[in-house]
Amino acid sequence: MATLVRRVVSRNGIFVHVTAPATVIRRRLAARGEQLPAPDEIALVCHRYDELFRAVRTMADVLLITSDHPDEDA
Length: 74
Description:
By secondary structure, this protein is an alpha+beta fold. The chain has a domain at 22-69. The chain has 3 helices and 2 strands, in the order H-E-H-H-E. A two-stranded parallel ribbon has the order 1-2. It starts with a helix and ends in an 8-residue tail after the last strand.
């Protein structure tokens, strides 16, 4: 990962972190007919990606895009 970060920085690039609440991810998987992991499994993966991108932000620019919306149920 460090090599990727260095390459992105050296090219004046950014990382894009696209995220959504676990419930939204699960609903989208269901809509596509995919196998549904448990909500806590999805939440754990989301948490680990958030941790990873927090670390990346200390070295490179990160654009955060989220589907959080106040009108959606959590």
